[in-house]
Amino acid sequence: MVNLPYIKLRRKVELHAHLNGSLSTESIKELGKKLYGANTTAMESICKRLVDVDSLDHCFSKFPLMHELTSTKRGLQLATELVIRDFAKDNVIYLELRTTPKRNAAMSKMDYMVCVLETIIESMKTEKILVRLLPSIDRAADVAEAMDTVNLVLELLPKYDNIITGIDFSGNPKVGKFEYFMPALTKARQHHLKLAIHCGEIDNPSEIDQMIQFGMDRCGHGTFLSETQLQELGSKKIPIECCLTSNVKCRTVNGYEDHHFKHIFNSKVAPVILCTDDCGVFDTTLSKEFALAQQIYNLTNDDLDYLLMMGLENAFLENRDRIYLLKEISPPNYGI
Ligand SMILES: [Zn+2]
After folding, report:
1. Which architecture characterizes domain 4-334 according to CATH?
2. 16 Cα: distance to centroid of ligand 1 (angstroms)
3. What pLDDT shows up at residue 188?
4. Which of 97, 135, 246, 310 has the fewest CB atoms in 10 Å of its CB?
5. Do residues 7 and 291 touch, judged by C-beta distance below 8 A?
6. If we measure between CA atoms, which residue out of 266, 199, 198, 264 comes closest to residue 234?
7. CA-closest candidate to residue 18, choices 287, 279, 199
8. How far, in Å, is the centroid of ligand 1 from the Cα of 36?
9. CB–CB of 95/316 below 8 Å?
């Protein structure tokens, strides 16, 4: 039985959420209305493009709409506010957002990042949520862009080191070679930024080996990790960020029953965390993902509490903030 109320009421930790993909359909419409007002043609065009995702390629084809809506400072600011508000509504008390710095006619990459960072700071004053940012390196973009992003982040760190806690490596896994991006990721690591790497989203064993050898602080998806690769991550206590609905809708797994979460959770071969990935694109919430996991894999409420704690344990956080969140998240019988 889906136990949505229990998990909905629990304070939660979301560690794998892309800013643009996390805009729900309702929030996209709300954003459209705020941006275009009474312009019904613009709104009709937005609604027409809001279709269900049913493959990995389709998922990546849905992002241009969000990128268009966030191509101005006002659009980006409103979108960031709406995403944070929606997570807070779902009782997410700690959120790590990811986004690729973008440049366009209206904004430089620096403008883009400052807009997101300042909106995060403002939103934390009104919503009961702690937010951190992982700027993303897009593997589908030019390698020079990656180094550019890392340099930009290093420039921003003196002012925003309490908000930027790591770097995300993501983008279409069918495009780009991991090894080309290693110098940029190495530079980030040398400056004590944590690394969340999308790894094993598609079946590419040699790249997965390369990524594991290079090292990471968290593994995104890990769908096609072999048992040996899983054990290697487990021996280093590197958690796998599992995103159930994302993988099912992108068809990188055959269905919820076949999702690798089940094996990792039951065998405890490596730490595992439940995340949404792109809750807007995949029409889900973190509460729904927990409820689905409970229903499909027969998890108890204690199992859900354990997963919440795994999220907190593996958050890219200062210990002071982790202790604060531990008190907020702990179930009543946890003895805190
Ligand atoms: Zn992702």
Report:
1. Alpha-Beta Barrel (3.20)
2. 6
3. 98
4. 310
5. yes
6. 264
7. 279
8. 29
9. no
Q: Please give the C-alpha separations between residue 207 and each of 176, 188, 202, 253, in angstroms, as whole numbers.
A: 11, 20, 10, 19
| Residues around ligand 1, an ion, CB closer than 5 A | 277
pLDDT greater than 90 at residue 9: no
Confidence of residue 308 (pLDDT cuts 50, 70, 90): very high
Is pLDDT above 80 for 331? Answer: no
By annotation, the residues acting in catalysis are 201
pLDDT digits (tens, 9 = 90+) for 193-235: 999 999 999 999 999 999 999 999 999 999 999 999 999 999 9
Prediction pTM value: 0.93
Domain boundaries, given as residue ranges, for the chain: 4-334
Scanning 161-275, the segments in alpha helix (DSSP H) are 178-190, 205-214, 227-235, 244-249, 260-267
Tokens 């997963």 belong to residue: 307
CA 40–ligand 1 middle distance (angstroms): 33
Question: N- to C-terminal Cα distance for the chain?
Answer: 29
CA of 21 to the centre of ligand 1 (A): 9
Please determine, for residue 266, whether its predicted confidence score (pLDDT) is greater than 90: yes
